[in-house]
Amino acid sequence: MKTHSGQIFDPAHFCEDNLVLSDVALGLSRLPRYNGQTRVTYTVGQHLLAGDSYLRWQGGGITLRQYWLLHDMPEYIVG
Length: 79
What we know:
- The protein is built from 4 helices and no strands.
- By secondary structure, it is mainly alpha-helical.
- Helix 2 (44-57) packs antiparallel against helix 3 (62-70).
- It is flat, with a radius of gyration of 14 Å.
- It starts with 20 loop residues before the first helix and ends with a helix.
């Protein structure tokens, strides 16, 4: 599959060097949570940013926040 940035993504031969964060951000910002079954569109990207804001407000450390922001990352490519 060719991503928005033009990178070729092959799940069978994943390599971190081929990961483009802007592709991840774009994919997650377009992907609706709950398969779009909400009255108002709520994307995975919104979910991640809301959770990060909450963790920051609660004094969550950078490592926890990084794990939070990455926990849905595979969804950018598999939906």
